[in-house]
Amino acid sequence: MDKQQMLKNFYLKTSSPIFKRTLSECEQVAGSNVNVLILGEPGTGKETIARYIHACSHRVSEPFTSVNCLAYSGDALQDELFGHEFNSLSGLQNTKPGKLASVGSGTLFLEEVLDADMMTQLRLLSSIESKTFEPLGTLAKSSLACRLISSTSKDFSKKIIGDNINEGFYYRISTICIRIPALRERKEDLVDLIQFFLDKAQKENDIRIDTIEDKAWQFLTNYEYPGNIWELENTLSRMVVLSSNHTITGEGIPILFNLKREVKKDVGMELPDSVLTWKEFKAVSEKKFLESVLMSMGWNISATAKKLNMSSRQIFNKINEYNIEKPVL
Q1: pLDDT over 90 (residue 88)
Q2: Residues 36, 150 contacting (CB under 8 angstroms)
């Protein structure tokens, strides 16, 4: 996908001065080969920005490959990146090319790169410095020809270089840093984005919306969306599903639960329209709560587990149990 095709992406259409500057920075660095680190809150579209840099570069006809560093344990991440070769001594039973090899002269995007384990960071640092890499199970070196773009959702207002992040690795991957503004910083685009996701939700759910009540519209245009684009899309989907007579009402506003509610002023609380069993209510509530926390943590499984005082395995089990899917942006 080239630059002109990328600019048709709803997310890149902007009237925001701050986001226009971001896109200009992307275009400026695209012609170089320096490593780029994209900074941004969860849901701000860091992979879309990485793809835009690739589309503006001379590598546009080469592959663009992404790897989410949070999705793999240390050994598995190294295998995914470096690959391995058959070696009877090491126990490796086949040969598998890693992403560093398969991407060739294209662009490799490492999502949440600062969550990679220390050994992977050190191996990548060595490869960046030597412009070579070694698949697992062999000492034979291969040339590193790809362009490296990475991203992180870490808060750089706090000290992040420490025991889990190698300082040399950090400085090698961040020759250029590009910060993606949060949705609350590009309010000029909010109405257009609301319309885009409203249209999308109507098509996906086969529900026509003719009217948005003032209360709901005030919420949509004034809420700060800590989950950014992901949360905006989820919010519009929820409001469309909970609409009544082709009208989005204030009943669709609650963020935490995907249940239609009626405000009971006499008891000062919200109750479901229909009676559910406790097991049903607990399941729906737990699913929406986990989705909300995952979104706020940028789908960082380990951070979500820590936030909820659970293990990463428990989080993965819940994701599978409730069939929760990560939004694609």
Answers
A1: no
A2: yes
Structure tokens, 267: 């008891």
| pLDDT of 238 over the 50 cut | yes
Which has more confidence, 82 or 140? Answer: 82
pLDDT number for residue 189: 95
Distance CA 106, CA 60 (A): 8
Q: How many CB atoms lie within 10 A of CB 13?
A: 13
The more confidently predicted of residues 227 and 48 is: 48
Q: Helices 190-205 and 228-241: crossing angle, nearest 10°?
A: 50
- Cα 328 from Cα 45, distance rounded (Å): 9
267 Cβ contact partners less than 8 Å away, ≥ 6 residues apart: none
Dihedral sign computed on CA atoms, order 306, 308, 313, 318: negative
CB 110, CB 174: distance < 8 Å: no
- Provide the 3-class DSSP secondary structure of residue 302: helix
Q: Is residue 278 a contact partner of residue 285, using CB atoms and an 8 Å limit? A: no
C-alpha span between 256 and 226 (Å, rounded): 13
In the chain, the amino acid numbered 53 is I
pLDDT, position 329: 57
As a whole number, the mean pLDDT across the chain is: 84
Tally of residues, the chain? 329
Tell me what percent of the chain is helix, strand and coil, each rounded to the nearest 5: 45, 15, 40
